[in-house]
Amino acid sequence: MPTQIDFENFPAGTLVLNLYAGKGVVFPWGGIVNSDSPEGKPHSGNNFLFLFGGSPKPLVFFTGPSYVALWAGTRNSPQGATAWGHLEAWDASGTLLGGTTQQLVVNACDTQLQVNAPGKFIASVTLSLVGIGPDGMAFNPYATIDDLAFDVELQKLEPPRWYNPWWWVGLPVPPLGVSVLPGPLPGEKWAEDFAVALHAGETARLAADTAVRNEAESVARRLAEIAAESIKRAAKVS
After folding, report:
1. 69-122 confidence digits (pLDDT tens)
2. What Å distances lie between residue 77 and 38, 40, 103, 131, 197, CA to CA?
3. pLDDT at position 43, please?
4. Does 227 map to a domain?
5. Domain count, the chain
C-alpha cells in the first residue's frame, strides 16, 4: 500500500523532524507545518510543510520505496519570480537512481515532482530549488511540499552514508543491526535521536568557519553516539 502524508494531522507551527518516522520518513533539516495563506498554499487541504535549511534538502526513508512523489512549491517568493524544483533519488550506497526537474508555481504547492526506480530501494531524496527574481537576479526560494507519497518495499533499510550520523562525524559504523534501522515504530526514542543527529551532522558540514565547524562536529559526534545507543536499544542488539 502506498503511503501519503498531507500534513493535516498537526496544527500550523508544528516542528517536523521525526514526527512521520512511524510512516517511514524523517526530515533531517526539519520543517514547520504552515497553513494556507497568500505567502504559500497547499496542494490539498489546509496545511503544507515549509522545509528548513539550504539546498538540496534531504528526506530520508526507512522502508525502501521504489518511487517517491511530492507536490513542491515556494513560499513568500516575490511577485513575478520564476522558480524550478529538482528532485533526485539515491540508494543506500550513494548511487543516483534518477531525478526530475520542473518549473514550479511560486507560492503554492502545485507542481508534482516524482522519481521512479523500479526494482530499486530509495534511501533518500533531495529537493533543490533555484529562482530568478523579477529583476533578473538569482535567489534561493523557500521550499514547500505537500502530499508526499511513496510505496513501502522493506521493513528496514540502512540510510545513505552521507546521512548516516556516524559516517558524518568520522565514527566507526556501529555493528550490523545498529546501523541498519529497525522498522519504523511510532514514538520510539531512536527516531528522535537519529533525526537530531542527522541535523547536527548536516549543520557541521555546511559551516563555513573552521572554528564553528569544529565545534559543530564535536556536538554532532556526541549526538551520533547518543543516537547509536538509542538505535541499539531499539534493535535489541547487544
Report:
1. 999 999 989 989 999 999 999 887 778 999 999 999 999 999 999 999 999 989
2. 10, 9, 14, 9, 31
3. 97
4. yes
5. 2
Same domain, 75 and 106: yes
Confirm whether 222 is domain-assigned: yes
Q: Name the residue with cell 562525524.
A: 169
Structure-block grid coordinates of residue 25: 520518513
Contacts of 231 (CB under 8 A, 6+ apart): 174, 178, 179, 181, 182, 190, 193, 194
Q: Are both 12 and 64 inside the same structural domain?
A: yes
In a shared domain, residues 21 and 113: yes
Q: Do 51 and 14 touch, CB atoms closer than 8 A?
A: no
The residue ranking higher by pLDDT, 49 or 79, is 49
Angstrom distance (rounded) from CA 66 to CA 219: 34
Distance CA 50, CA 32 (A): 5
- Interval 172-193: pLDDT, tens: 544 433 333 434 433 456 666 7
Please give the pLDDT value at position 195: 66
Query: Which secondary-structure segment (H or E) carries 191?
Result: helix 189-206
Whether 94 and 174 map to the same domain: the answer is no
* Residue span of the structural domain in which 17 resides: 3-150
Grid cell of 28 as nine digits: 533531517
- Answer whether 105's CB lies under 8 Å from 66's CB: no
Question: For residue 90, which phi and psi values (nearest 5 degrees)?
Answer: -130, 150
Continuous H helices in 67-111? none
For residues 29 and 145, membership in a common domain is answered with yes
Percent of the chain's residues with pLDDT above 70:
73
Shared domain for 82 and 129, answered yes or no, is yes
